[in-house]
Design goal:
By secondary structure, this protein is mostly beta strands. The protein has 2 helices and 31 strands. It has helices at 3-15, 21-31, and strands at 56-58, 61-63, 72-77, 80-82, 88-89, 106-107, 116-122, 133-137, 142-144, 153-154, 160-161, 175-180, 183-188, 193-198, 205-209, 213-217, 223-227, 232-235, 245-246, 256-262, 265-271, 280-283, 295-304, 309-316, 319-326, 332-339, 348-352, 357-362, 366-371, 376-379, 387-391. Strands 3, 4, 5, 23, 24, 25, 26, 27, 28, 29 and 30 form an 11-stranded mixed sheet that branches. Strands 6-9-8-7-31 form a 5-stranded mixed sheet, with no helix packed on it. Strand 24 (309-316) and strand 25 (319-326) form a beta hairpin. The longest helix has 13 residues, at 3-15. It starts with a helix and ends with a strand. The chain crosses the membrane at residues 39-56. It comes from Actinoplanes campanulatus. Keywords: Membrane, Transmembrane, Transmembrane helix.
Length: 394
C-alpha cells in the first residue's frame, strides 16, 4: 500500500470519529484570538506573565507577596483578566495553606475571641445542614461557636440551606449575625453571649449596616432593620435586598449600593435607610468591555471598597466571573473571567484586602486574591474548600 493511499484511509477513518470537547473549545478560542488572548487547558494562546508583588494585608498591616512568588496575570482584552491555568501560591495571614479545622478546636464559651478574621461553616456533601461554625482569629487559632442552637434557614417551600452567609461577620469582626426561621441570632464573640431576637418571616439573608444594625430579609427586595443591642425590629421602607446588596462598614459612610435586576433593567442603585426611593440609580454599563463578555446576571452580596466601587460575582456568555463596578456610574470597570465548567453561582467575593486587591472563594481553587489593577491572581489556599466563609480584614 502506498503512502498516499494510507493517508487517505487514515483521513476517512478519522472523519468518523467525533472531535473531543476540548478540541472544539480550542478551535472556538482560536477563532476569537483577535479579541481574546487567553490560556486554557490544552490551548496556548497569547499569555502575558507580569512579575508583580501583590500587597496582601495581614493582621498587622500590609506586606508584599513572599520573595520568589510571581503572581500570574493574563489580560485577554482591555478590562478583562482570565484565571491562569497554573496559579502561583501566595500568602494571606491568618489563613493557613490548607483550611483544615482541627477536631479539638476550643469552644467559644470558654475562650471568647477579641476579633475574628473569618467565620467558617463546613458544607460537606454528606454533612448536616446545621454543621457547627468556627472562628478563625488573627493569631491563626480556631474556635468552635457553641453558645447557640443554630438551625438551617428555610424558604416558604421548605427548602433548607446552611445558615452562614458571607455577610454574617460584623465590620469590626466582633459579632456574627445568623438568620433563623422567625428569628435573628447575633453572637458576640468577645463575650460568648448569644442574642436571639424574634423576627417574623422566612429569614434567609443578613447584612450589616455599621456595627449596630443588621438588615434581615429573604432573597428578594424587602428587609427589616434590627438593633441587636436593644432587640428593636423596624420595618425598612427602602427597597433593599439583603441578598444582592453591599452594606456599609460605617453608618455615616453614605448610601447603600445595590446591584439588582428589576424588570429586566440592570441598575446600580444607592439607598439611604428610611427613604423608600433610591437616592440615585445608574444603568449598569458594559460598553467598555468586549461584547463577548456581556454579563447575564449578578448574584450574591456585593462588597464595597470604600471608594465608590463594589465587587460582585456574575455569570454571562463567557461563564462565571468576578466584576468590579463603579457604584455611581454603573460602569463595569474590570472582570476576572473564571471560565467554563464551573458550577453555576460557583464563586463569591469576600473582602477587599486593600484598595485594589480582592479576596474571593471559587469552587475549584479555594481562596484566591485578584489584583484589579495588574490582573494578577494568586492562590491563598491549596485546594477547594467545602465550606462557607464570612471574612473581615482590618
Amino acid at each position: 500500500m502506498g503512502t498516499n493511499r494510507l493517508t487517505e484511509l487514515l483521513e476517512e477513518t478519522a472523519a468518523e470519529v467525533p472531535a473531543p470537547a476540548f478540541a472544539a473549545s480550542a478551535w472556538a478560542t482560536a477563532r476569537r484570538v483577535r479579541r481574546r488572548r487567553q490560556v486554557i487547558a490544552g490551548v496556548a494562546a497569547f499569555a502575558t506573565v507580569v512579575a508583580v508583588s501583590v500587597p496582601l494585608r495581614t493582621g498587622g498591616g500590609t506586606e508584599p507577596a513572599p520573595v520568589g512568588v510571581t503572581p500570574s496575570a493574563i489580560t485577554v482584552a482591555p478590562g478583562v483578566d482570565a484565571m491562569p491555568a497554573d496559579l502561583v501560591k501566595g500568602e494571606l495571614s491568618p489563613f493557613p495553606e490548607a483550611l483544615t479545622i482541627p477536631a479539638d478546636a476550643r469552644k467559644l464559651s470558654g475562650h471568647p475571641v477579641d476579633r475574628a478574621a473569618a467565620v467558617v461553616q463546613k458544607t460537606e456533601a454528606e454533612g448536616p445542614l446545621d454543621a457547627p461554625m468556627y472562628v478563625l482569629d488573627f493569631a491563626g487559632e480556631w474556635t468552635r461557636i457553641d453558645v447557640a442552637a443554630l438551625q438551617p434557614t428555610r424558604d416558604e417551600s421548605g427548602n433548607q440551606a446552611y445558615a452562614l452567609r458571607s455577610t454574617a461577620l460584623s465590620p469590626d469582626g466582633r459579632r456574627v449575625a445568623v438568620p433563623q426561621p422567625q428569628a435573628l441570632v447575633v453572637i458576640d464573640l468577645t463575650t460568648a453571649k448569644a442574642y436571639r431576637i424574634p423576627v417574623p418571616g422566612y429569614n434567609e439573608q443578613v447584612m450589616w449596616w455599621g456595627d449596630e444594625t443588621v438588615l434581615v430579609g429573604a432573597d428578594g427586595p424587602g428587609v427589616v432593620r434590627v438593633d441587636w443591642r436593644t432587640g428593636t425590629v423596624t420595618p425598612e421602607p427602602a427597597g433593599i435586598s439583603a441578598w444582592s446588596s453591599a452594606g456599609a462598614r460605617q453608618v455615616g459612610s453614605g448610601a447603600l449600593t445595590e446591584l439588582v435586576v428589576i424588570d429586566e433593567r440592570r441598575m446600580a442603585r444607592g439607598w439611604v435607610l428610611g427613604d423608600p426611593a433610591p437616592a440615585w440609580e445608574s444603568p449598569l454599563d458594559e460598553s467598555g468591555l468586549p461584547s463577548a463578555y456581556r454579563i447575564s446576571r449578578w448574584y450574591g452580596p456585593a462588597v464595597p471598597d470604600g471608594a465608590g466601587r463594589v465587587a460582585a460575582a456574575a455569570w454571562g456568555d463567557r461563564g462565571e466571573m468576578l466584576t468590579v463596578v463603579d457604584a455611581r456610574t454603573g460602569a463595569v470597570e474590570r472582570i476576572l473571567d473564571l471560565g467554563y465548567e464551573r458550577m453555576k453561582s460557583c464563586c463569591a467575593v469576600l473582602e477587599w484586602v486593600d484598595d485594589h486587591v480582592l479576596l474571593a472563594r471559587t469552587d475549584k481553587e479555594g481562596l484566591i486574591t485578584w489584583d484589579t489593577r495588574s490582573g494578577a491572581v494568586t492562590q491563598v489556599t491549596v485546594a477547594p474548600m467545602e465550606a462557607l466563609l464570612s471574612v473581615r480584614l482590618p
